[in-house]
Write a structure and sequence with these properties.
Number of strands: 8
Distance between the termini: 94 Å
Strand content: 15-25%
Number of domains: 2
Strand order of the largest sheet: 1-2-3-6
Order of helices and strands: HHHHHHEEEEEEEE
Largest sheet: 4 strands, antiparallel
Length: 249
């Protein structure tokens, strides 16, 4: 049996949705062995159908099966449907199916694009918020460094890094700078601490050379500490301090 090539290609969606009968499915499967475009289309439709099914799946009510089985015995059955004897050409069947299948494929694609657009919009908002937070921290660092009452103290960490702390009572903030800080292992990070009468409180992180704003309130703190901690940080120091430097008075 010969089929028009353009008619056969439109069956990719029906094949992916298992909407072909046994003969049609076997014939289209044979076509797939020699058509890379249809194989890709069928795979895309299968993936899209799986995503849509997962997004709309709902757990049926517990009593639904019981009510259904109890009602079955009272439902009158219809007589069997006898198919007409008039033959239907394969090409005509393909053309009739092409429109609804193409529509279903378009709806599936539209749903996928809508989901992608929503994710992109959410990701853009997250990046914008992150950028605003970074800009605010940079502004605060600049304000501390430029404060008329800014005081500076220098030190050297046990790993050889040169460090500087600048504090401002007026800003009630302090910044920490490091030069020559060795790159930590991927599962470790440098963590800052504020020493309040022997109690070490987390004060942020510094991952490379540069200047960072010290988190927390430096008022009442006597020193700034630096340790090497597991990635993600620790609530209390777990290693000997690389640096314990008095805040500038």
């Amino acid at each position: 049996m010969k089929h028009h090539a353009s008619d056969v290609h439109v069956l990719a969606a029906a094949y992916a949705l298992n909407a072909l009968d046994a003969d049609e499915r076997e014939e289209f499967a044979a076509h797939l062995s020699g058509c890379e475009a249809c194989r890709q289309d069928a795979a895309d439709f299968e993936a899209t159908a799986a995503r849509l099914a997962a997004a709309t799946a709902e757990v049926p009510p517990t009593l639904m099966k019981q009510r259904t089985m109890a009602t079955v015995d009272g439902v009158r059955q219809l007589p069997p449907r006898v198919p007409t004897a008039s033959p239907v050409s394969f090409r005509g069947m393909l053309r009739r199916r092409a429109v609804p299948l193409a529509l279903a494929a378009s709806l599936a694609a539209a749903a996928s694009f809508a989901g992608l657009a929503a994710w992109q919009n959410q990701e853009n908002r997250r990046l914008e918020q992150q950028a605003r937070q970074t800009e605010q921290r940079l502004d605060t660092v600049s304000a501390v460094l430029a404060a008329p009452d800014a005081r500076t103290v220098h030190g050297r960490a046990a790993n050889g890094a040169f460090t500087t702390v600048v504090a401002s009572d007026r800003q009630n903030k302090a910044v920490f700078s490091a030069t020559g800080l060795p790159v930590p292992a991927t599962d470790r990070t440098y963590q800052l601490w504020l020493d309040h009468d022997g109690t070490m409180r987390p004060a942020g992180f510094i991952r490379r050379d540069g200047t960072v704003l010290i988190d927390g309130d430096p008022a009442g703190a006597g020193a700034v500490g630096l340790t090497l901690e597991p990635a993600g940080g620790s609530p209390q120091p777990t290693t000997a301090p690389l640096l314990l430097m008095a805040l500038p008075a």
